[in-house]
């Protein structure tokens, strides 16, 4: 997964990583995480995997003597089934914010042991707090993505602009509604229809779908996964749409010219958690504690533009890099943190928001084929 | 190729059902060593089932089969040492002619040199020298049949079974191959069981014929016996051709609607006529003479067919339609002509009226 | 009577391995899924079923899934039949190569394959660019991200399932029968309609069954190439497992699909299940019935005979178009594999080996590749080993319940893999096999079995048993008969069955995700892990390498065949 542009950054990150490790060694303020055995951790693959390996796993192994086994990630459903069956896939699982509540409700997770943490770090989780059963792992944002060349003079500033085909002609791509919370298309549709961010929740499904009706003729493809959202823009199959900021930066690192606008971005997160029934619970606690530190988080964000969850990490990130991150102070407030409580709460019809989003979508595509 | 003397095949009380259908009903017959036996019958008569049972491809429900006096019922088919020639030859298309011939020898662990020698010998036997390297699909139908016969004989089986081996050949080639097979049989002395539905083939080739119908053995004997003294109306009708004429009820017994004298017509060993019986008389056992010749039954020619030395003539006499084989002299019968029909003495046979066959 | 019981024992021994496997690797897991579908909040209830029936949208999704599978089957028949006919009757010397090329679409990851279609059919894709350059159109045509694109993608992947069994059946049609037909006064079209078509029916039935059942489980291709309306039941089930973790509703949906398809198959079993009615001489009876229903065929025969001289050229043109259709995406994939660009783009700006280097440097991928290779091979070998006697017992035996056994063995194709994966996972955890490579092996035997059974039962249905009887009478023991006669004569069918069984394991992602562990991670999982976030040319490298391996194997076979031919010529001259 090495690319010319990225290689330099990787190299820089490694050197920087070495330097900070050396700097941090004498400071005994850090809790000792030394241990034995191994820990099986979720592994993202691709650039994400590079970032995780370089920023977290390798320094963790050096510092603690615990061997890290990277294991490919699985979908939330598989993860859940595995925990229910008593055989979790990972000691350290990565669960999207939208699914976390369901894991919490069904009591599938072990409490995080903050005894391994440095006191100041927990307070650093100021955007999404570190909770009893999980720790936010990374922050990312579903933002307006557009062809930077085509809209060089006047670029879309809001989701309403994305819906405005007269002033911003070109084919659209948005997440398919079956992606539910992760795709954020319902929030985006409401924002485009003029709903104020503070009135977004509870989501007015009818209004959201009516809004989607209006943009439908302009949408060339409702994307099914993150890779597709950006690939469609790289190939100019679509010139305006939604995409995750990290995917846009990843493509631009490799030479694409995709513009992004943070305004009205939907800020999302994924969390680290320790499933019930894991074999190496203590090592998992230590790995999570290690990842909570600002230095490795800073290194992680050097390699991939996902925001650190511990804001103290910004002390270690160069300003030009920090500007690219969704949690950078300058752009943080332009975005709306997605309300996972709403998405997992049961509404008057007895369904969670996730479930409702999927059934509404199924009905919508069937009725208006 | 030196052939060991053929062995006897004894079949005793063989029965087989497929679901509700009785394929074989207590059939017993014995094939003598070196004999050429034809199993003859219409389709569904059970002849193929017997063949399958002897070869071991089909298990009979009851009954026993002995070859050379040895019971083989519990012997798996590949240990029975029986050669089989299949209807469509079943030559292996993925092998050459030589490989087809060598197949049984390789199974018996015969050395390569000996195998090669015997393959050449077998090819010579069926006059196919030089064809060893050919693919099976490069052969004509007749050539394929020769190879199939050679393949079935090369391992010197005690018995050779042939399942309608001529049915895929055209008439000329069939007659030629029938002759060659007879020669081969005489040369080798093998016991041969031939399954056929073609009575001409059975009569012309076999030493003896077993006639089957609906799973039962109806008659077994030499071709001449079956022709001359059929055991029942079915045999009489199946072997050769026959006219069946109803006998009029009440004494004196006569052909219904005819004036002729019946008694003189009957063969010496024929049953005595009873009411409701039929008289069977073959077309070749009648003569068609000009209408003025006395002592015959007056009739009229309906249709004729020319056949070289003989002319087949369909006549109507006293409301019966009768087929006659008339000798061709200088006179050819024409439809519409009047004639006088004469029965040859001591040629007719009386049978109970046959069923619907 | 001892004889009868002996054959019964023999049949039981032939059926038993498959039945044991199905009990362990299929029925047990499905029982667990069925139980799951009846459990809600710790209580037994029919709530999941009630919920589904209360929502009319599910009926719509069910019908759309069945219709889509039906349409895809029709397309595959219409395209595949003339193609198989061409290869089997007029291009026999090229058959091996062509059949291997036909199987190509299987050898690349579904995501990269779909991307290739976008590159070909998209707004700025090859087709539109060519049409615009020729001045035929002014604005690009919409060829993808609608139902057309969805059908194109599905037909391309499923066409091999139609063509390979058809070809195997047509190869066994004795050309002398056609000559016999012609000698009886039939024109080319009448001979085709009255002789060739009926004799090829078992292959057609097997192909249609394979295509239809596979199409029922599709959702990634429609999701990537279709419109949002091309939403298949498997996707509804998938999203309920992965996003909502509503295992009961997912299981209930699967069972309803299963019941619906099973009823359909039972109703149509006389046509679909290629098992003859009665034993020894049953060959033509059913075939004749089919032939007599082909009354329409007879109506067009006379016209057909007149057009017959055109048939040859038309067949060749059709054949070339089909090959282009099948291979164009492969060409795109190979070109992408050699791309110098850091991301996926077509046509590549320039060419390089960088993605091959990246692949071979990545030990994770290499390890996963080896794991996939050996576990899929082991599973395919096992499937063939136990599926062959099973298929023989079904095709040759005449016993009650054969059709039900056929349906049972084929039914893993009907159920979405996500449900099988769920059930298998629970079972393996209960058995202490969680994460063990053996669990992959069992799973892939179960998913490979339908292909082996469908292909082999169809092949045996048209097999001339006199070949085996001849070998037996010549002194060959049963296993020798199988080795020296049955196997070589049915080589094409066995190879097809093996290939499908192998690929069903090698291609699997969904079950693998359930079974994955540090001891067992397949290449498909590694690719998925990578392309969830970005599609890089590295996945194309895997496809290109598989193509290369296939071509090497083919080349070696062609060479050995050529050498053999030379030797034969020398000995005969």
Automatic annotation (TrEMBL), chain A:
Q: Where are the transmembrane segments?
A: none
PROSITE patterns for this protein: TAT
UniProt superkingdom = Bacteria
Q: Which UniProt keywords apply?
A: Signal
Asked whether the UniProt record includes Plastid among its keywords, one would answer no
Q: Which InterPro entries match?
A: SBP (IPR006059), TAT_signal (IPR006311)
Name of the protein = ABC transporter substrate-binding protein
* UniProt source species: Neoroseomonas lacus
TrEMBL record, chain B:
Establish whether keyword Cell membrane is in the entry: no
Coiled-coil-forming residues are: none
Q: Which InterPro entries match?
A: AAA+_ATPase (IPR003593), ABC_SmlMolc_Importer (IPR050093), ABC_transporter-like_ATP-bd (IPR003439), ABC_transporter-like_CS (IPR017871), Mo/tungstate-bd_C_term_dom (IPR008995), P-loop_NTPase (IPR027417), Transp-assoc_OB_typ2 (IPR013611)
Q: Which residues form the ABC transporter domain?
A: 9-239
Q: Which UniProt keywords apply?
A: ATP-binding, Nucleotide-binding, Transport
Query: What Gene Ontology molecular function terms does this protein carry?
Result: ATP binding; ATP hydrolysis activity; transmembrane transporter activity
The highest taxon in the source lineage is: Bacteria
Protein name, UniProt field:
Polyamine-transporting ATPase
Species whose genome carries this gene: Neoroseomonas lacus
